[in-house]
Each structure stands twice: as structure tokens, then as C-alpha cells.
């Protein structure tokens, strides 16, 4: 799952702070994996064991051995236009240092299967033995969460070397869809970035510039303060930026 609002309230706050501090240092990140089900965790555990691929975790789902199952962990990936997990430039170590300074435990420091995109609350130790002993199951643990601490990631425009995207309060973003923002329509591609210039949109398949050539053409502002805003035709046939009274 990629919804940070499903996680522990304090983790939500720290995730928002991590994104903010990384932005200050020119490191563009997005939230990836958050809460996982038992089945999702078991599927990851099987990789490199009973399923193809290399081992990515030592945590079984059936024994609640991942903090992702407890809502106290999340993964990040880089969103600066480069490969999401490219670390040739030490990107994840830089983000890891920021996370540690905020009070998070960073998976990049683990000896067995280091996990550089991973962050978690440090309260119960690196393994889940302590939290399991105290709360038994994730469901019982979640009943103790203080609702008043709950804070969401700020909603709004985000920008990196690849372009602009709109971040939702749960850490996700708009993709393959239109969004009305401040009286203007914006079209977002499959990767979450706004489109500019001429593009086709197929509402049936929810695709931008489908390979089969289907869909209607739209023109989207190419630069300036309203970059990405959709244009439309006036009654006299001339075109202008579309302003929606709403």
C-alpha cells in the first residue's frame, strides 16, 4: 500500500518532515510502500526462496515480523527524474542521514539485507519481538494509536528536475487523470507529472497519448505561472486558458 495515513500518527508526522528536509537539501523523494498485509509480506519473503528473484527481506508475514505490518515503517524512492532506486551518487545515504537526524531508524544501517529506502520508528528495537510481546497483533497495537497526533503530508504542488506533480495528503499523487486545481484543469501522466503542450486523452482507458492514437486533443499551457493549465475555445473560436468558476 502507498497510503501514509494508514500508518502510526507519529510516523506520518516524521514522513512529512523527512520530505520537507530533503527538499531543502535538493533531494526529491516520494513515499512508496507503507502498511502491508500479512499476504503482501509473505509474498516478499518468498522472493529468493520459493519464488524467483533475490532475497529482499528476512521478515515473514505470518509471524508479523515486518514493521510495515504494524504501520510503523515506510519506504521512499527518488523522484528527481533518475531511476527510482539509483544510488550511484549516494542519494539514499544522504536521505538516510536526514531520517536519522529526525529520529527515524534507517534500514541502510542493517547488517543483514540492508534496506536503504526503508525507515521505521525506533521505539521497539530493530526487530519486532518487542512490539509483538507487548501488543500480540498489529490490530491490537493500532487500537492504542493517539488520534490527536495524526498529521498528514501537506497537499500541494511539488517540483523536481522532471517537472511538477500534485501530492495528496496520503503521500500519493495524481496520475493518469485530470484534476481541477485553483480554477484550472491539469492533466497528469502515468508517472504523475503534469503534461504541457498538445496531448491526447482517452477517458475510457484513462490514458494520456495512447499508442493506438485514440482520444481527444487538448492544449496545456507550456510555461509561466499557469504551466500545465488547460486551454479551451471561446465562443468566437479563439483560445484562452480555461478558468473554471468553482
What does this structure look like?
- The chain is α+β, with helices and mostly antiparallel strands.
- The chain contains five helices and 13 strands.
- The chain has helices at residues 9-24, 38-46, 91-101, 129-135, 138-142, and strands at residues 29-31, 73-78, 105-106, 118-120, 156-160, 163-167, 177-181, 184-188, 197-202, 207-208, 216-220, 231-233, 239-241.
- A four-stranded antiparallel beta sheet has the order 1-2-4-3, with helices on one face.
- Strand 5 (156-160) and strand 6 form a beta hairpin.
- The protein is elongated and about 70 Å long.
- The model has no long low-confidence stretch (mean pLDDT 92).
Indicate the radius of gyration in whole angstroms.
21 Å
Reported for the largest beta sheet, the result is: 4 strands, antiparallel
Strand content: 15-25%
* Low-confidence runs of at least 5 consecutive residues: none
Count of helices? 5
Strand order of the largest sheet: 1-2-4-3
Number of strands: 13
The percent range for helix content is 10-25%
**Average pLDDT taken over every residue:** 92
Which geometry do the CA atoms define? Answer: elongated
Amino acid at each position: 500500500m502507498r497510503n501514509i495515513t494508514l500508518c502510526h500518527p507519529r510516523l506520518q508526522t516524521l514522513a512529512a518532515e523527512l520530505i520537507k528536509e530533503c527538499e531543502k537539501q535538493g533531494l526529491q523523494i516520494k513515499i512508496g510502500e507503507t502498511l502491508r498485509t500479512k499476504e503482501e509480506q509473505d509474498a516478499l519473503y518468498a522472493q529468493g526462496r520459493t519464488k524467483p528473484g533475490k532475497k529482499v527481506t528476512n521478515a515473514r508475514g505470518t509471524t508479523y515480523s515486518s514493521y510495515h505490518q504494524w504501520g510503523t515503517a515506510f519506504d521512499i524512492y527518488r523522484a528527481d527524474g533518475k531511476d527510482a532506486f539509483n544510488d550511484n551518487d549516494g542519494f539514499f545515504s544522504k536521505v538516510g542521514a536526514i531520517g536519522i537526524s529526525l529520529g527515524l531508524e534507517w534500514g541502510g544501517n542493517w547488517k543483514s539485507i540492508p534496506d536503504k529506502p526503508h525507515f521505521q520508528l525506533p521505539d521497539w528495537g530493530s526487530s519486532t519481538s518487542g512490539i509483538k510481546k507487548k501488543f500480540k497483533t498489529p490490530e491490537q497495537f493500532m487500537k492504542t494509536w493517539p488520534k490527536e497526533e495524526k498529521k498528514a503530508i501537506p497537499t500541494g504542488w511539488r517540483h523536481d528536475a522532471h517537472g511538477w506533480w500534485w501530492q495528496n495528503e496520503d503521500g500519493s499523487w495524481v496520475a493518469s487523470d485530470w484534476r481541477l486545481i485553483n480554477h484550472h484543469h491539469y492533466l497528469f501522466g502515468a508517472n504523475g507529472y503534469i503534461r504541457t503542450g498538445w496531448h491526447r486523452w482517452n477517458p475510457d482507458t484513462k490514458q494520456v497519448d495512447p499508442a493506438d492514437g485514440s482520444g481527444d486533443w487538448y492544449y496545456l499551457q507550456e510555461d509561466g505561472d499557469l504551466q500545465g493549465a488547460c486551454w479551451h475555445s471561446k465562443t468566437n473560436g479563439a483560445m484562452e486558458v480555461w478558468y473554471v468558476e468553482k
